[in-house]
Every structure is written in C-alpha cells, then in structure tokens.
Amino acid sequence: MLDRLIARLRSATRVTVMTGAGVSAASGVPTFRGAGGLWRTFRAEDLATPQAFARDPSLVWEWYEWRRATIASCTPNAAHGVLAQWTRESPHCTVITQNVDDLHLRAGTERLVRLHGSIWELACWQRCGTPRWRDERVPLPSRPMTCPSCGSLARPGVVWFGESLSPADLDAASAACSCDVFIAVGTSAIVYPAAGLLQEARSRGAFTAEINVEPTAASSAVDAAIQGGAETVLPEIAARLQVR
Ligand code: APR
User: Tens of pLDDT along the chain (244 residues)?
Assistant: First the structure.
C-alpha cells in the first residue's frame, strides 16, 4: 500500500492532504473519537453547538479555555513538519485541516485551509460585523470575553456542529480536490462536509489514500489505506521520496 502511494506521489503534480485530530495526537492534543477521544467523556451537544453556547456561555468558554491551555503546551510533530515542507517546496501542494489547534501554521504550512476555524481566534456572538480577532492569551483575561466593537459576548472562532463552513474555505477545499493524489491523515472521516472531500477528489480522478492508526469509515473507499501513526508514516514517505 505504501509503495503504491509513494509511486503515485513521485509522478504527481498536485497533491492535497486533508488532516484531522490524529495528526496532532503525537503532539499531545486529544482527539475527539477513538481511544481517549474527547467525545467519550464530554457531550458535543453540551459544548460544541450554538445552542450550548446560548444556554451556558461560561461552561462552553471553560471547556475552550481548558483546550487552549492544553494546546498551548503542545508543539508541532514530525507529521506537521513534513506537510509544511511539502507546501513550501511546491505551490501545488495544499493542506486542508479540520483542526483548530493551528499546529500546521506553527510548523510553517503555506496556503493552509482551516475548515473549522481556529481556537486562537474569537468572534462576536451577535455578528456585529467586526472581523474575527486573534487572542493567544492563556488564560484569557475575562470570562466570558466580549466583542471589542459592540461589547456583546465573544465566542470561540471555531465552527460548531450545525454551523456552516466559510464559503471561501469550502471553495478553496473543493478546488484542491482537483488533484493527482489526495491523502486523508488522522481523521475518522465521518464529519461532513470535510469527509465528502475525499469522495469529491476520487470522483475527479485522484488517487486516494488514508493514513490512520485504525480503520475508518473511509478505509474501504480509498485506493491505499495505510495503518500507522501520521508522525512516523509521513516522515517515512518523505524520506523515501528523496531517494530517486
Ligand atoms: N496518526 C494517525 N491517525 C491517528 C493517530 C496518529 N498518531 N492517533 C489517532 N488517529 C486517528 C484516530 O484513529 C481517528 O480515526 O485520528 C482520528 C481522529 O478522529 P476524530 O477524533 O474524529 O477527529 P476528526 O476526524 O478530525 O474529527 C472531525 O469532528 O468533533 C469534530 O470539529 C471536530 O474537527 C473535528 C471533527
């Protein structure tokens, strides 16, 4: 399987990689599903929906502050490093991520598409029109935070269940599905519309692969399902691509 993927990568011009929580697992960021996943302990409906925030903003902020503190102590791992290097080496390599931890950015990834926003950004809950703003302070100085323009509640700048993705991000992700090789890394591939991108790429003729420590919803649909940690498989691929 790995040999097939490497052969395709050697001849590919356009390569798209879509990542999920598993790519940051080796950095110490908890995943949502699978062993130790956050959704085994917490209910997404209580913490990651607009309804939950409307009901109890302090509780939702408490959970995001806890995650911000966890992520603040994490650093990019070898998988982030390889992907960042690929984007620097080729303008035809695109990374799309569902992660809000910004570890791809910290690794230096170029042209990153962040489908679910960033945990380091805040937005006005009343949508007063002020653009999202970045605030990396841990802990934040007040809870809940307020919008600097209109004074109403501020919310985490992430996409919650039941919310739409930014049209610009979706367009960029969809455009990146026109590629020669599409690799899904460390995602359970069950949350749409992200999960649909793999099918979109496949229907447009891409060779599709996944890298995951366990089988997923996408394993039977991809051309190459590679079992292993992103932090070991991606560096191995990168090393073998350098040997001609
Ligand atoms: N390397 C590769 N894959 C790994 C590793 C690793 N070291 N560790 C765990 N995994 C895999 C797990 O087997 C699992 O399939 O990563 C996947 C993580 O899946 P999820 O936790 O469901 O994360 P993701 O697919 O990114 O979730 C999508 O759901 O809760 C929402 O908005 C949240 O963006 C998130 C979305």
Answer: 899 999 999 999 999 999 999 999 999 999 999 888 999 888 898 899 999 999 999 999 999 999 999 999 999 999 999 999 999 999 999 999 999 999 999 999 999 999 999 999 999 999 999 999 999 999 999 988 999 999 999 999 999 999 999 999 999 999 999 999 999 999 999 999 999 999 999 999 999 999 999 999 999 999 999 999 999 999 999 999 998 6
CB 92 within 8 A of CB 110: no
Q: Closest residue (by CA) to atom 25 of ligand 1?
A: 187
Select from 17, 31, 67, 164 the residue to mutate for testing ligand 1; criterion: most ligand atoms less than 8 Å from CB: 31
The rounded Å distance from CA 226 to ligand 1 centre is: 15
**Helical pair 167-176 and 194-203, crossing angle rounded to 10 deg:** 30
3-state secondary structure of 25: helix
Task: Using alpha carbons, select from 24, 196, 201, 190 the residue that is nearest to residue 100.
Answer: 24
The reply to whether 92 belongs to the active site is no
Strand residue runs (E) in 32-151: 93-97, 113-114, 117-124, 133-134
Q: Are strands 117-124 and 15-19 parallel, antiparallel or unpaired?
A: unpaired
pTM value surpassing 0.90: yes
